[in-house]
Write a structure and sequence with these properties.
Layout: H1 8-18, H2 23-44, H3 49-67, H4 78-103, H5 108-115, H6 119-130, H7 136-153
Length: 154
């Protein structure tokens, strides 16, 4: 059957086979974080990185009732809560460092892609800490990402 004659159901089935279920969320994160980078640069043109971080945190808090409408925070395992708090603290410090780089004159087109390479830390640490494996193709993807940042920075 020609691609132009495929039904919506068939196209959805094909997309499901080709793209894993998490892909849509990852693509959404890419668009949202990319847009956030623009707003972060615009904000640090007028306020300090520290003030921007406070307002960034307020943005997180505003969404909490929507993200956890029927959950009690006390229902989560303590270990998971502590690991998440640590992750939040590290995320906050990373956000502050990004905002400070933008505030000090870094171009959004260079700083945001550079700081967006943070998954490389995960790629390096995941096999050691989580026992995950990285394929050669994924390793090649890491090299491509590093090359892209170098080209952005030139």
């Amino acid at each position: 059957m020609a691609a132009s004659r495929r039904t919506t159901h068939e196209m959805t089935a094909i997309a499901t086979i080709i793209l894993p279920g998490w892909f849509g969320y990852a693509a959404l994160a890419l668009v949202l974080w990319g847009t956030a980078g623009l707003f972060q640069k615009l904000s640090t043109n007028h306020i300090s990185a520290e003030a921007a971080l406070i307002w960034l945190t307020a943005g997180f808090i505003l969404l909490d009732p929507w993200l956890l409408p029927n959950s009690s925070l006390a229902s989560f395992p303590v270990k998971s809560v502590l690991l998440t708090l640590l992750g939040g603290a590290l995320n906050t410090l990373g956000s502050w460092a990004l905002l400070a780089a933008l505030e000090r004159g870094g171009k959004a087109a260079v700083v945001v892609p550079l700081t967006s390479l943070y998954p490389l830390v995960v790629v390096i640490a995941a096999p050691i800490i989580l026992g995950e494996t990285i394929t050669r193709l994924q390793g090649f993807g890491v090299l491509c990402a590093l090359s892209a940042v170098v080209l952005f920075a030139i």
